[in-house]
Specification:
The chain is about 15% helix and about 50% strand. It is an alpha+beta fold and about 180 residues long. The protein has one domain: Lipocalin. The longest helix has 21 residues.
């Protein structure tokens, strides 16, 4: 068999296997067991707008978007989309507990786990995060989410630098209502 014949045979076999896989009915369920904390984060889906107040008192407008994705197994959070400080967070359950991976404008990605959870409040703190030296690297170290009702959300982000708290940014957010026809 020539090299060309083998390549054609391989491509044909791969195509048939791909078609068979695609035709097979896959049971993709969104009814996976999930922690209460993850279920609470899913309820944040939508657009939130408000203000960001930095430690020095500087206030600026902010937009945060939450989107349930991956057949319900993850929630994507986009902070400050379209700005130089745009960041993305991914919330998901791991081993029965909520985890947050924060893709930061600092150029790193702290992994946060639930430290405390109660009705309307989640406190997450940095866990093991490869590539971040907590003693020297600037990073986001913790996040507290407070959601007293379905339309109000406060985020308290605490950054660390040189092993100590370096500042807090507070987002005060209100859920945007969907407009008719959207």
């Amino acid at each position: 068999m020539t090299r060309l014949s083998r390549a054609v045979a391989f491509l044909l076999a791969a195509s048939v296997a791909g078609l068979a896989w695609a035709a097979e009915e896959h049971a993709m369920t969104t009814d996976r067991p999930a922690s209460k904390e993850f279920q609470d984060v899913k309820k944040l889906a939508g657009r939130w707008t408000g203000t960001a107040t930095e430690s020095d008192g500087k206030v600026s407008p902010v937009t945060v978007d939450y989107r349930v994705t991956s057949a319900g197994s993850a929630v994507e959070e986009r902070l400050m989309a379209g700005t130089p400080h745009e960041m993305v967070d991914m919330y998901y359950d791991e081993g029965g507990g909520l985890v947050l991976m924060h893709y930061c404008a600092f150029g790193n990605r702290p992994r946060m786990v639930v430290k405390q959870a109660e009705a309307g409040r989640l406190a997450l703190e940095m866990g093991p995060s490869p590539g971040i030296d907590v003693a020297k690297d600037q990073h986001m170290h913790s996040l507290v989410l407070e959601y007293p009702d379905a339309d109000h959300l406060t985020q308290r982000w605490v950054s660390y630098a040189n092993g100590a708290p370096g500042g807090t940014v507070v987002f005060a957010l209100t859920r945007e209502k969907e407009k008719a026809g959207q």
